[in-house]
Structures are given as structure tokens and as C-alpha cells.
Specification:
It contains 20 helices and 31 strands. It is α/β, with parallel strands linked by helices and about 625 residues long. Bound molecules: adenosine-5'-monophosphate-propyl ester.
């Protein structure tokens, strides 16, 4: 097990040590794992290149650290508890021993399909145990997994399959989400028409609906597993060999394939899991995220299983069949640590406090949030009505690219403050810089959040595009990793995340690039151009507001066109990217060089007229028209 901090002075001591001697600090954490060959050097780095390598020459297999390391003690302990969408359906428990067997069998299946070290295997699955099994099986044979969230469209899936040049896709006949059935196989088939690299498709049976099957290409999971051998030798990996690719949105149109490697990611997710949640042996831990996002990778699968924890995996949604689904699950399994998003909390808050009031949830000890800033009202509701005033809340700030939690309280140890992510974890050196790159020291400062020293869990590159990695994270402020977030450090030295300052919006805790949504809108033949900004939304945190230029607009067509644009975006990206509001306009505010001045659009949707200097606009008269249109649309 990784070293565990248990007091505030212990945290302060570890933090100081991690700064004074970072390589000594991380070497000590890494020593708690099983390495087939030890590293020869802890760290090599240069943020200007940029290049980061941890545990150089170290050899290991991450699944050996999950299974072989724990099996002697934990064979009969539940590793995964799977709770289905429908509470009337039976749940499923996989002990460490059972999960180990399934992972080994599927690893052998993958080998029989010709998958080897370094090959990419994509998953487009609902939240079923096979998803976790497949990820670990891929890792066992040294291949690279790339999970695509099941809510993405065929186009979005195809783009990711092509970029990763995936050899095998694992999908399901369908998935359940509340009252809905999601036709995953049909969507996958559509994507596969444009994804020639995919040779085989493994299909998990979930809904048992009849689905199209392509002879020779498509294979049922169950058929393949029936005869698979129960042991598969783990492939020895270099610490810096890739573990997975996970696509996320950036400020330009194309999604970024964030690449995480084996050794550093293992050390970092396990260390942060144990310390942030203060997980104790025998606890039941429940992260309600989807494995399609980084939170599920790091804190449903890898972090907890590396620490020998019992991790609950939930297929459904918080509000179906009724808005007490989470509270039911917490009582059913005696959950001790619960981790979810501010969006889910706000959605449940809106349903009233009588729902959590009917559940004592006595087992709960720690609550967590992730993905977006949490507003004070939601924080207090979570604290008072879910935690019954006795559970600390860990507001964890991090990103797909950071691999694990970076700034967060340690549960029950760091004094919390609503809406504050509080203090950096050991080894993490946040720094605030102004727009000119000057570091702002001391208290009560606000600016761009950067990190000035590497940590083991950080992304090493963007798949196939190292130059873009450099541009996106290391160019705005040379020598620093730039997060894209604004931040404030208050009089106590506590950090409060203020949200994205680039062209990325955070909808329900999901990152979406405005350019990606604009490209989708612009595909409509009647649209000349568009600009998308985030606006404050009571449940989603940020909603999507689109200003759309339509040259030949006739008022009677407004609603029809709106609907068709919304449908178009859902088809091109997925339902998560649907605009909430669409305002048709005659033009967008532009500088002489033709750039859209989004600052103005952002002000308008925040009900502000504090535009600053607009003298560089070529069309200043458009601003009044935009404001008038905004008022007409939004009352
Ligand atoms: O803006 C920050 C916000 O989510 C972004 C990262 O999104 P993603 O890569 O999808 O990962 C989400 C799950 C780790 C960040 O740049 N964010 C994440 N956590 C918080 C947050 N904003 C405020 N408070 C948080 N706790």
C-alpha cells in the first residue's frame, strides 16, 4: 500500500519533503509496488522540449500490481460491485479472484484476435463489468486501450477510431440509461464504415435486442470467453510504455488523444486515491462517474483496484426510476466514500431534500466532487442532506491530462471551505501567473493556473501529435504546464478554481471545445458561421449558447431551423453537445484581422455590458443588435 497521511501536520511535513526532494519522495511511494526491474533513475524532464519520464528503465505490469500483489490476501474480497441501471435486476459482485480470472481470459481472447503489445483496442460500451475487464485485459498484454464514452455519436466514434488506428473495437448490443435504451451496436456499425483499421468487433450482450452482425468481423463476447484459458502471462512493460489514450476536447476542432503511460500513472492514481479519500481497508467506495471519462479510469478502475479496494460501478443515472438512486446504492452496499459531480448534486437538489432525508446513509464517511466548480448552495446541500453534516467534502481539482487529483483536501484532515479545492497534494507545485507570464506570489492573487514541476501521473504526449501537446500545454507560459483554468489563491493560501479561460466550456462536468460545436453547426447549409460560448446554467454549470449567422433567415423558419441545428450537433458530436440556446444574428463582432471577439459574446450571455475597448472592431454596430436579440430571446 502507498504511504498514508493521517494528520494535518503529517500532510504539511510530507508536502515540504516532496518539494525539497521530489524524486526521493516519489521513489518512496513507488517502492510500495511490484516492479519486475527497479528504475535506474526517478525522473528526467524538460518542460521546454517538452519531455517527462518517470521511473526510467523500471519494468512492470500494472495488472500484476492489481491482482498478483493482492490475491493472497484479497482473493475473496469484492473488487467490483456492479449495480445495474434497473434496481429490479440482480447486481453482480466480482471478487479479486473472479475479476482476475475474467481479465486473464479476455486477455487470451485478445491475443487470439491478434492483439499484441502497443496495439490499440477501443471500447464503446455502457457501464458494464466487461468494460473494466476489457481495460485490464488490454493492459495485461501490453496493448493500449482507448475508451470512448457511450454518448458519443458515430462520427465522433469514427474520428477517435481513426486517429488511434484501433485494431479491435469492443461494444455492446445496446445499453441502458434510465428509461432509455441506447443502440450502441448500430452506432458502432455506422462508425466502422469509416474506420478501416478495425479488424474485429467484440460484442457484449446487454439488452439482448437483435442487432446486425457482420460475419467474420463481429464476435460475441460470451462465445469467445467460453473456451478461453484461465491464465495469461502479463507482458513486462517499461514504466514509460503507453497504458491508454483518452480523447478530450481542446480549443480547436479535433479531439486530443491524451496519452498516459504505465508506471507514473499507476503510482499517482493509487497514491491520490488512498490519501484524498482516506480509504481504509475493507471500506466500500463508490465513484458515480462514467468510465468513458478520466474520473472513471483513475477512480473507479485503476486507483481503487491498485489499492486493493472494493469499488462500486453503477450503470444507471441518479434520477431513475426516482431521484434516490444514489442513496439506495449507498445503503445497499454500505458505501463509505462517495464521489460524484456538482451537476449531479444540483440535479438532485432540485428534486428536494425529502429524497436523501429518507436514507440514513450511516456508513458514509467521505464525500467528494469533481469536474467543475461547485457552488456554495450545492456544497451545503451535499454536506447537510447527504453527509448529514458529519462527512467532510473533498472538492478535487484535476484534468484528463493530469491523470489524477492535483488540488484537494485530504478527507477529514484538511480543513475545508465551500467551493475551494484548498491545497495541492504532495509533489504538486501550482503556480499562478498573470497574462504576461509573471508569477504571482503570496496571498489574495488571481490568474492563470500553471504547474511548475512534473508529477508522475501527467500525460506524456497527445497521440500522434507531440507538437500539439507542446502548443496546448507548454507554450502559453514557457517552462510551465498551463492548465487552461483561472484560479484564485485567498488569504489562507487556499485555491479556488474559477473555470476555463480558453475556448473550452464545461457542461455538466464534461469538457467541450467551442470550435468543435461551431464546426458542427456550420455544417448546416443555411449557416454562414457561428460562435459558441458558455452561459451560467443552474444545473449543468455551463450551458451552450450559440450565436448563429444565417444570411437568409425568415422568421417563420426560426424554430424549425433551431431544431434541425440541435439535431445536427447531436448527430455529429453527441447529445451532450446540444446547444441550449440559439440566437440567430446578422453578424458576429470581429477584429480587423477577422477574429471573432468572443469576450463580447461572453459578456452578453452573462448579462453584462462591460465590454472594455471595442474600438478595434470592424463592425461595432453589431453589438447593440446582439444585445437586443439576446434580450428578446431570454426575457
Ligand atoms: O476546468 C477544470 C474543471 O474540469 C476541467 C478538466 O476537465 P476534464 O479533463 O474533463 O476532467 C474532469 C475530471 C477530472 C478542469 O480544467 N474541473 C475539474 N475539477 C474541478 C474543476 N473545476 C473546478 N473545481 C474542480 N474540482
Amino acid at each position: 500500500m502507498v504511504p498514508k497521511i493521517s494528520t494535518l501536520s503529517g500532510y504539511l511535513y510530507e508536502y515540504q519533503k516532496s518539494i525539497a526532494d521530489p524524486t526521493g519522495f516519489w521513489a518512496r511511494v513507488a517502492e510500495s509496488f511490484y516492479w519486475r526491474k527497479p528504475w535506474t533513475k526517478v525522473l528526467d524532464w524538460d518542460f521546454h522540449k517538452p519531455e517527462v519520464k518517470w521511473f526510467i528503465d523500471g519494468k512492470l505490469n500494472i495488472t500484476e500490481n492489481i491482482f498478483e500483489r493482492h490475491l493472497f490476501l484479497r482473493a475473496k474480497q469484492p473488487a467490483l460491485i456492479w449495480e445495474p441501471n434497473n434496481p429490479k435486476e440482480p447486481h453482480r459482485i466480482l471478487t479479486y479472484e473472479e475479476l482476475y480470472r475474467e481479465v486473464n481470459k479476455f486477455a487470451n481472447v485478445l491475443k487470439s484476435l491478434g492483439v499484441g503489445k502497443g496495439d490499440r483496442v477501443a471500447m464503446y460500451l455502457p457501464m458494464v463489468p466487461q468494460l473494466a475487464i476489457a481495460m485490464l485485459a488490454v493492459a495485461r498484454i501490453g496493448a493500449i486501450h482507448s475508451v470512448v464514452f457511450g454518448g458519443f455519436s458515430a462520427r465522433a466514434l469514427a474520428e477517435r477510431l481513426q486517429d488511434a488506428q484501433a485494431k479491435v473495437l469492443i461494444t455492446a448490443d445496446g445499453g441502458y440509461r434510465g428509461a432509455k435504451t441506447i443502440p450502441l451496436k448500430q452506432t458502432a456499425d455506422e462508425a466502422l464504415e469509416q474506420s478501416p483499421s478495425v479488424e474485429k468487433v467484440v460484442v457484449v450482450r446487454r439488452t439482448a435486442e437483435k442487432v446486425p452482425f457482420v460475419e467474420g468481423r463481429d464476435l460475441w463476447w460470451d462465445d469467445l470467453m467460453k473456451d478461453a484459458a484461465e491464465y495469461c502471462e502479463p507482458v513486462e512493460m517499461d514504466a514509460e510504455d503507453p497504458l491508454f489514450i483518452l480523447y478530450t476536447s481542446g480549443s480547436t476542432g479535433k479531439p486530443k488523444g491524451v496519452l498516459h503511460t504505465t508506471g507514473g500513472y499507476m503510482v499517482y492514481t493509487a497514491y491520490t486515491f488512498r490519501n484524498v479519500f482516506q480509504y481504509r481497508d475493507g471500506d466500500v467506495y463508490f465513484c458515480a462517474a462514467d468510465i468513458g471519462w478520466i474520473t472513471g479510469h483513475s477512480y473507479i478502475v485503476y486507483g481503487p483496484l491498485l489499492e486493493g479496494a472494493t469499488s462500486v460501478m453503477f450503470e444507471g443515472i441518479p434520477t431513475w426510476p426516482a431521484p434516490d438512486r444514489y442513496w439506495q446504492v449507498i445503503e445497499k452496499y454500505g458505501v463509505n466514500e462517495f464521489y460524484t459531480s456538482p451537476t449531479a448534486i444540483r440535479a438532485l437538489l432540485a428534486k428536494g431534500e425529502s429524497w436523501p432525508a429518507s436514507y440514513e446513509m450511516k456508513s458514509l464517511r467521505v464525500l467528494g466532487t469533481v469536474g467543475e466548480p461547485i457552488n456554495e448552495e450545492a456544497w451545503h446541500w451535499y454536506h447537510d442532506h447527504v453527509g448529514k453534516g458529519r462527512c467532510p467534502i473533498v472538492d478535487t481539482w484535476w484534468q484528463t491530462e493530469t491523470g489524477g487529483i492535483m488540488i484537494s483536501p485530504l478527507a477529514g484532515i484538511t480543513p475545508t471551505k465551500p467551493a475551494y479545492a484548498t491545497l495541492p497534494l504532495p509533489g504538486i507545485r501550482p503556480v499562478i501567473v498573470d497574462n504576461d507570464g509573471n508569477k504571482l506570489y503570496g496571498k489574495n492573487v488571481e490568474g492563470n493556473l500553471c504547474v511548475e514541476f512534473p508529477w508522475p501521473g501527467m500525460a506524456r504526449t497527445l497521440w500522434g501529435d507531440h507538437e500539439r501537446y507542446k502548443q496546448a500545454y507548454f507554450s502559453a507560459f514557457p517552462g510551465l504546464y498551463f492548465t487552461g483554468d483561472g484560479v484564485k489563491r485567498d488569504e489562507d493560501g487556499y485555491y479556488r478554481i474559477l473555470g476555463r479561460i480558453d475556448d473550452v466550456i464545461n457542461v455538466s462536468g464534461h469538457r467541450l471545445g467551442t470550435a468543435e460545436i461551431e464546426n458542427a453547426i456550420n455544417e448546416h447549409p443555411l449557416v454562414a458561421e457561428s460562435a459558441v460560448v458558455g452561459f451560467p446554467h443552474p444545473v449543468k454549470g455551463q450551458g451552450i449558447y450559440a450565436f448563429v449567422v444565417v444570411p437568409d433567415l425568415r422568421e417563420e423558419l426560426d424554430d424549425e431551423l433551431r431544431e434541425s441545428l440541435v439535431k445536427g450537433v447531436a448527430k455529429i458530436i453527441g447529445p451532450i453537445a446540444k446547444p441550449d440556446r440559439i440566437q440567430f444574428v446578422n453578424g458576429l463582432p470581429k477584429t480587423r484581422s477577422g477574429k471573432i471577439m468572443r469576450r463580447i459574446l461572453r459578456k452578453i450571455v452573462h448579462d453584462s455590458t462591460d465590454f472594455g475597448d471595442i474600438s478595434t472592431l470592424t463592425n461595432p454596430e453589431i453589438v447593440d443588435e446582439l444585445i437586443a436579440g439576446y434580450k428578446a430571446l431570454n426575457g
